[in-house]
Amino acid sequence: MGLTKQYLRYAASAVFGVIGSQKANIAYVTLRGGEKGRYVAVAACEHAFIWDVRKGEKVLILQGQKHEVTYLCPSPDGIHIAVGYEDGAVKIFSLMNGESNVSFNGHKSAVSVIHYDRLGARLVTGSKDTDVIMWDIINECGMYRLRGHKDIITQALFLKDKNLLVTSSKDSFVKWWDLDTQHCFKTMVGHRSEVWGMALLNQENRLLTGSADSELRAWDINYLEEEKAEGEPKVKKGKTLLDDDEDADDEEGADESLEERILSCKKAGSILREARDRVVSLITDAKARVIACHGNDSVLELFTVLSEEEVQKKMMKKMKKAKKKAAKAQEDTGEEAAEPVVERILKDEIIRLTNIKASSKIRWVDCLSCAGGELKVALLLQNNTIETYSLKTSDKTPTANKTARLTLGGHRTDVRTLAFSSDNLAVLSASGDTVKVWNRSTLQVIRTMACEYALCSLFVPGDRQIILGTKSGKLQIFELASGSLLETVDAHNGALWSLCLAPDQRGIVTGSADKMVKFWEFELIKDQGSSQKRLTVKHTRTLQLEEDVLCVKFSPDHRLLAVSLLDCTVKIFYTDTLKFFLSLYGHKLPVLCLDISHDSTLIATGSADRNVKIWGLDFGDCHRSMFAHDDSVMFLQFVPKTHLFFTAGKDKKIKQWDADKFEHIQTLEGHHREVWCLTISPNGDHIVSSSHDKSLRLWERTREPIILEEEREMEREAEFEESMAKGDVPVVPGETEGEAAPAGKKTVETVKAAERIMEALELFREEARKMEEHKYACERAGKELPPPKPNPILVAFGNVTPSRYVLDVLKKVRSSELEVSLLVLPFPYVPDLLNLFNSYIQQGLEVELVCRCLFFLLKIHFGQISSNQMLLSVIDELRTNTLSKVQEIRDVMGFNSAALQFLQREIENKEDVTFFTEATGQLHQKKKKRRKRERAILTIA
User: Fold this and answer.
1) In this structure, is the dihedral angle defined by the CA atoms of residues 251, 252, 258 and 260, taken in order, positive or negative?
2) What is the dihedral angle through the alpha carbons of 653, 657, 662, 663, rounded to the nearest 10 degrees?
């Protein structure tokens, strides 16, 4: 197809200006065996950044695809980090190289919590879709889905020594799950409102929950299964072994007693927080000795859990005081008083450590206990800042010292104006309190200067000074070399919404909410007391209008001035005489942005009514009105020396348009909140955009041409994939609507994997048919004929056999997507697969993978397989072969394990060294035994 007009694609290049996104938590990580507490992981839109808080540098970027990061959880070994996304996906990244090899997809909406178990072999995730999913990290697949909560999951915690899980949710319930039987055996209903946080204390014998009030409730956990009397009936997890003569109705009573047989949970008291609002986050350090919690304010409250020895000392002191008081009372009254009794309450076990006052509202917190009783606290604040504190928990009155504050890499508030320098190398961004100048190639901050709330900006010709228009109506002039404010000019009485440089570069024009457009000329004046000249602006003319001015723009030929007003019109005046020329009337809501093409023939206007209109400047006729965005059009700019222009909208998108053909060319997606403004470099090769998500994004023009038909096709495919991803979880035949369900979710990847398996099976059938025909032809000819040519695909894979090719395709399917891919597979392909599985198991090829696929297919197609007479012999063979082969593998593994243990014992005896003592926790026990032996020998002696 011939290209009538060639457009070049703009592609995302970098994300900068964001230090930490508010949606996801902050977490301490260890990097390449580095110092503890030096590195923190935070979300940055769709990526995750690892910051070195000591140097204030970004050391690693964990690249995401499209969706925002919503939760981070480092693994117990510190080598990996699990990252949850807004679409429900979970990826596990290596902290060594920043690459992701494992990904899980089971939730329908944003992941709200992630936790590893003690060994780091399992992962539990909770989501906004109210489901809890258990993932097997070693096998890289989903285990099961737990249903029961009715609102967002806020926390999920493993119990270390028990195969139990406890989850909390906004539905005000805390649920206990037995992971052996995959059911909820206890629901705690002691909260009046949402449960926002939860922590396990005292070797997991106490649960602490944070709700929407100022109380932290504590619950005592008693594990009753261990303390059972011998005479009680034996209870399996999930089932009560009832007598044969008991009625089926008694099962209900057995289930009720079951929760009391595993554990009981009773309220032990509550701790009062200073904050009156809800708990935003509640976390503990790794040893659960320090509790950190905060609300929506800037105060972090720290509590410490005393050890049993410390509590006993405290109780003894209280007892002494009580005895003294009783003795004094006895002396005063002369009567014999009863023995004083001191009750142990929650305040004796959990005491307030200190409060930390941050510089802004706290969004997330993480704490880390280090050697010497030092506690490190990292805070992610709501104004795009990270702060770290350090304190000694052993001190009587611990005080927190601020150790680092990351602010340079971004703005505290939203960036409302951007500008490019004339050499395309520097980018200016200004927000409510600072203006920053960035190096475009390195994305590093060159200058940071304090300013008032900026609404518009530009580089003065020569790129040595910048001018800002502020919300208070002032013009601020800064010098870049020194980073100093040269002058503040009281230009207008209202917000200064727009600035435009004159085409002759001798002055500027400003438009304001005070209904005036003012013209200014650049001047060099001498300061008093110095011989150097500095830049200033001199007011020359004023154009008074009847409505607030929202945007002003000179035509490049300096002939006309376009002014957008609050009455939804655009007025055009002659620049020299300021006489009225045209009124562009047609928008239903005010025009927020406009631009004029390089040849002064077209003017494009973008409005809050979501439309973009293209007008001719000769007669003011509207060439075309286009529905551009799903929300207000915030910014519009022509690409230099072309009739192409870009628009930015509150619908999070940036779009490119052709003003001659009135066509939509390309959509740049990446921002996760409203896009406020953008700027295009003078050569048109780069775009920088800013958004409410605090990020600045750089887009580069590539050499890749855009073909509009293909672009529309790609957009339709993306819409189809998105609708498929939002589809329901496939129902597995035979599965009842209970608390446990399959973990997987139908996605585009699983459908593609199923299609690849079907294609491989079709190829296998075709090759089998060819071989049958060849055999029949040889029999008819009475001699051996040359074999048919194999399929080119088989040749490309190294002349593999068709059956081996099917196995290779199965192996390439991601472990986490295998079950759902087989679920999508139509039944007519299943008999062929069963026959192939039989041959694979006989040959000993990938027995574990084949068994996993076989058992899943038997589970979902049980009825059809068992009723098919032709498959009965195949199933019988599979049963025999599978049992024998799996037994062989078990024997080999057992033999290898025994051999390794034997070698370990031999080396230990030879070198008098105990292996893995710290990991297994046997060192302490062995020392105790040795001491007992020594005491016994001394006693005998």
Assistant:
1) negative
2) -70
Token reading at 819: 């079950």
Tracing tokens 């905060």 back to the chain, one arrives at: 294
Q: Which two tokens stand for residue 431?
A: 């927000």
Cβ(518)–Cβ(580) below 8 Å: no
Give the position of tokens 């928990």: 393
Q: Report the distance separating Cα 180 and Cα 202, nearest Å.
A: 24
The C-alpha atoms of residue 464 and residue 447 are separated, in whole angstroms, by: 12
Any alpha helices (H) in 665-727, and if so which ranges? Answer: 708-725
SS3 185: strand
- Residue 917's pLDDT is what? 53
> What is residue 230's DSSP assignment?
T
Q: Say what the alpha-carbon torsion angle 658, 659, 663, 666 is, to the nearest 10 degrees.
A: 30
- Residue 82 CA, chain-centre distance (Å), reads 9
User: What DSSP state is assigned to residue 17?
Assistant: B
Which sign does the torsion angle of CA 815, 821, 827, 832 carry? negative
pLDDT along the chain (941 residues), means of 10: 69 90 91 84 92 89 90 91 92 90 88 92 92 90 89 91 90 90 87 89 86 88 62 43 39 46 83 88 88 91 86 82 80 70 78 89 91 88 91 81 86 92 92 92 90 93 92 92 90 92 92 92 81 87 92 92 93 91 91 93 93 91 92 93 93 92 90 92 93 92 88 82 61 54 75 86 84 81 78 81 86 82 84 85 84 85 81 83 87 92 87 58 68 77 62
Please report the pLDDT score of residue 865 as a whole number. 81
DSSP state of 306: P
Handedness of CA 576, 581, 587, 589 (dihedral sign): positive
Rounded to whole angstroms, the Cα distance separating 735 from 605 reads 57
- Between the alpha carbon of residue 884 and those of residues 742, 849, 877, 879, 892, the distances in Å are 29, 16, 11, 9, 12
Distances (CA, A) of 602 to 285, 647, 859: 62, 16, 67
- Going by DSSP bridges, is the β-strand pair 484-490/602-607 parallel, antiparallel, or unpaired? unpaired
Q: Three-class SS of residue 218?
A: strand
Parallel, antiparallel or unpaired: strands 69-74 and 622-627? unpaired
Residue matched to tokens 């953008």? 678
Residue appearing with tokens 């708990």: 279
Asked whether the CA dihedral 739, 743, 747, 753 is positive or negative, the reply is negative
Place of tokens 């004029």: 596
* CB of 421 closer than 8 Å to CB of 459: yes
Residue 478: exposure state from Cβ atoms within 10 A (0-12, 13-18, ≥19):
buried
Q: Are 604 and 645 in contact (CB under 8 A)?
A: yes
The residues facing 538 across adjacent strands are 521
In whole angstroms, what is the distance from residue 39 CA to residue 95 CA?
Answer: 11
Enclosing H/E stretch for 377? strand 374-381
Beta strand pairing call for 197-201 and 740-741: unpaired
Indicate the residue type of 145: R
Distance CA 876, CA 315 (A): 70
With a CB cutoff of 8 Å and minimum separation 6, the contacts of 779 are none
Q: Token match 């376009």: residue?
A: 562
pTM: 0.81
Contacts of 352 (CB under 8 A, 6+ apart): 301, 302, 303
HSE (side-chain half, CA atoms, 13 Å) at 417: 27
Q: For residue 720, what pLDDT is reported?
A: 76
Angle at 109 between CA 108 and CA 111, to 5 degrees: 115
Length of the chain: 941
Contacts 24+ apart (CB under 8 A), 84-87: 84/24, 84/110, 84/111, 84/112, 84/113, 84/114, 84/125, 85/46, 85/110, 85/111, 86/23, 86/110, 86/111, 87/725
